[in-house]
Design brief:
Elements lengths: L5 E3 L9 E2 L5 H4 L4 E3 L5 H4 L5 E5 L6 E6 L10 E2 L2 E2 L6 H4 L3 E5 L6 E6 L5 E2 L4 E2 L1 E2 L2 E2 L1 H29 L3 E10 L2 E11 L1 H6 L2 H9 L3 H10 L3 H13 L1
Antiparallel strand pairs: 1-9, 2-10, 2-11, 3-5, 4-5, 6-7, 8-9, 12-13, 14-15
Length: 236
Amino acid sequence: MAEQQVQPLHNEKHANLKVQNGINVDFLKSQHLIPVVAHEFARVATEFPMAFVKNTESGQFQAVALFGLEPGENLYVKDGVWQSGFAPLAAARYPFGLVKHPEEDQFGIVIDEASPLVSEETGNALFADGKETEYLQARKEALVNYVEFARVTEVFTKYLADKELLVQQTLTVEIAGEKKDINGIYLVDERKLNELSDEDFLDLRKRGYLAPIFAFLTSTHQVARLARLKAQSQEA
């Protein structure tokens, strides 16, 4: 896998750079999960199962989309090609990233110069006459939005945890006649959700949390898709 060369984006240094849209398959092929934000839950649920994982050190929960049934496995990459029609925002940001300046509340944009999506030949120009193109402005806006979406998702996730709506569960899938367990993940506890007081349920609605919760619950049906992909890869 090529080393990343992440550099601050500069209108002179990168005057002639072009970027193709796409994702970093080299990186993703060994990722079995990736962070997702609440704003994309409905879209993610049509392709991938979602879960919450707990950081053992901080105790914080994070929402993720599952690409595989075990670490290092991505069942959505086949022969070096991304097989899904959609990639979560965390993957779609590539080859750009944001870094926060330590002194001030400002973000700088960085680019992976070693990315196969970056060249001077093909793709979307980033600068014209030293000024940012509309394409770059749109990509920048998406990056800033992602940071905001991630903050909102953090608050949403903490709320679910505080209300004890997240429960550790084992998902069992059947692959080629054999049962396999996926451990260490947390799901929304439907029983507790149904037992919420009218007041708490109304609070969820007012906060706009019901839609992402129901999308999350729907997504667990996609575990069957992972099992199917796993069985196909084993056959191959």
